[in-house]
């Protein structure tokens, strides 16, 4: 009997093998990779191409990093220039022409009052490292150690390294209510809710029996990103500035995600005119490469040499890419463009909200947009004067919408307290047509997810 050759088994496409090996070899703590099973091989502007040849509009933008989208020509050119020049790529925190240019460009964008009297500390390359630096700075400057932070805040993931090195003072944080219109903790929303949040802060700080020792600093995000896209009202920001100033508490603005034009102003603090004592900057300032700094009033510069160190504080390619990005955003008024396009997208999403009871709230500033998905058939959780009843968040629907978006070639991020907020962080360079396509694909995905029986799938973590 003739032995027949077994039919050749078709090899699985390369991207499937890569995804399978990732699932086998990478950590259980991996995040985006779970909900976005794609293998990017090429990218330009807002478009990512997967190893399977599919193309996606990217509204995640490296978690808000890519102000100019992927591989912008001015960014690539700046990187190539450094490489071709023969300049050293690793220099710790030594002075270089590249760093000098970056600092000059960054200072040119800062609020004048701060820029005229600012110092900069280059930190380890992640936003969280710059947040740590900011805390050390204000503690060294004022001798106080306690911190004020807000509900829903996200400032990073580091914990313990300094403790393990034997040099960490205990971190005590007093948590204050961040104003939220939709799920106002005081049940009123709007200006009244923001006023109550400010009053609570004032009262707690001035109450000798409040249990809050005089803090070194207050840290806040002008628009909370990971917390679910919650813009701080401008008047509330000014109140926080007054409250901190009157009590000699340093105000730290974490602009890691809101910076470089994203919210419609170059820095989000500009909307309110608030000049913070310290600004924490990362993500977009590195032009898609890792870079993090703090800039602060020179008066605070009282820490010791080596008070905040790190091997990778001198990333020359990131500084060159960052300087090119900052200059491009400034010269092309992309912050303004983000404001205009963002307002247009917000209006369209709000109109969509009036057709879909599963859209509980649409909010944002500039090109930092959030759509909170809810279960309209469940018992309302809170009642606010402004918004009426607010049904509970629907993380399963949000996860289903994210998957339906992906099927339609749109990458979106989830965030918020319950991972029920679909977040849009497109690059500031997106065209009118792309903005329309994003909303169209989202609307289509929402309709499909609402119909889908699988929408009860368990939502995973998103960061
Ligand atoms: N602050 C804010 C406001 C952020 O959004 C983030 C990251 N999402 C961080 C700090 C931490 O930055 P990194 O992930 O680079 O440590």
Q: Care to describe what's here?
A:
Helix content is 37%, strand content 16%. The protein has 2 domains: 19-25 and 35-70 and 334-451, Aspartate Aminotransferase, domain 1 (Alpha-Beta Complex), CATH 3.90.1150.10; 74-331, Type I PLP-dependent aspartate aminotransferase-like (Major domain) (Aspartate Aminotransferase, domain 2), CATH 3.40.640.10. The strands form 5 sheets. Strands 4-12-11-10-7-5-6 form a 7-stranded mixed sheet. A 4-stranded mixed sheet has the order 1-2-3-17. By secondary structure, the chain is α/β, with parallel strands linked by helices. Mean pLDDT is 93; it is low at 457-463. The chain has 14 helices and 19 strands. The structure holds 4'-deoxy-4'-aminopyridoxal-5'-phosphate. 4'-deoxy-4'-aminopyridoxal-5'-phosphate binds next to helix 7.
Main sheet strand line-up: 4-12-11-10-7-5-6
Please tell me the CATH architecture of the largest domain by its name.
3-Layer(aba) Sandwich
CATH topology of the largest domain, by name, is: Aspartate Aminotransferase, domain 2
Assign the structural class, choosing from mainly alpha, mainly beta, alpha/beta, alpha+beta, or little secondary structure. alpha/beta
Write down the CATH class of the largest domain.
Alpha Beta
Q: Report the sheet with the most strands, covering strand number, pairing sense and barrel closure.
A: 7 strands, mixed
Give the total of beta strands. Answer: 19
First and last CA, distance: 60 Å
Overall tally of domains: 2
Overall geometric form = globular
């Amino acid at each position: 009997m003739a032995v027949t050759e077994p039919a050749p088994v078709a090899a699985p496409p390369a991207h499937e093998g890569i995804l399978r090996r990732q699932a086998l070899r990478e950590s259980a703590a991996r995040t985006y990779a779970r909900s976005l099973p794609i293998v990017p091989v090429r990218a330009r502007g807002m478009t990512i191409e997967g190893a399977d040849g599919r193309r996606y509009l990217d509204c995640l933008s490296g978690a808000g990093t890519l102000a100019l989208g992927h591989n912008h020509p001015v960014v690539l050119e700046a990187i190539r220039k450094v490489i071709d020049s023969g300049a050293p790529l690793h220099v710790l925190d030594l002075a270089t022409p590249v760093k000098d240019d970056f600092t000059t460009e960054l200072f040119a964008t800062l609020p004048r009052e701060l820029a005229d009297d600012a110092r900069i500390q280059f930190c380890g390359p992640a936003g969280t490292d710059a947040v740590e630096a900011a805390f050390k700075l204000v503690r060294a400057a004022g001798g106080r150690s306690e911190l004020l932070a807000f509900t829903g805040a996200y400032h990073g993931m580091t914990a313990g390294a300094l403790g393990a090195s034997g040099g960490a003072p205990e971190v005590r944080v007093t948590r204050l209510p961040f104003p939220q219109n939709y799920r106002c903790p005081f049940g009123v929303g709007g200006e009244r809710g923001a006023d109550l949040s400010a009053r609570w802060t004032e009262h707690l700080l001035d109450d000798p029996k409040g249990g809050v020792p005089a803090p070194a600093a207050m840290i806040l995000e002008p628009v909370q990103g990971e917390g679910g896209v919650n813009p701080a009202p401008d008047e509330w920001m000014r109140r926080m500035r007054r409250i901190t100033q009157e009590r000699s508490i340093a105000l730290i603005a974490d602009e890691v995600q809101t910076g470089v034009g994203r919210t419609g102003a170059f820095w989000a603090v500009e909307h309110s005119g608030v000049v913070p004592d310290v600004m924490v900057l990362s993500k977009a300032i590195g032009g898609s490469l890792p870079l993090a700094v703090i800039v602060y009033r020179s008066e605070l510069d009282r820490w010791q040499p080596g008070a905040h160190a790190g091997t990778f504080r001198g990333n020359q390619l990131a500084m060159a890419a960052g300087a090119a990005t900052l200059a491009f955003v400034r010269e092309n008024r992309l912050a303004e463009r983000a404001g205009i396009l963002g307002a247009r997208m917000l209006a369209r999403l709000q109109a969509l909200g009036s057709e879909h009871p599963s859209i509980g709230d649409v909010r944002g500033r500039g090109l930092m947009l959030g759509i909170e998905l809810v279960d309209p058939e469940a018992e309302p959780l809170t009642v606010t004067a402004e918004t009426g009843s607010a049904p509970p968040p629907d993380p399963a629907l949000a996860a289903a919408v994210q998957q339906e978006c992906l099927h339609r070639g749109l990458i979106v991020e989830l965030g918020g307290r319950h991972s029920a907020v679909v977040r849009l962080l497109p690059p500031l360079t997106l065209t009118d047509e792309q903005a329309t396509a994003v909303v169209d694909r989202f609307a289509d995905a929402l309709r499909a997810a609402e119909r889908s029986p699988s929408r009860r799938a368990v939502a995973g973590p998103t960061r």
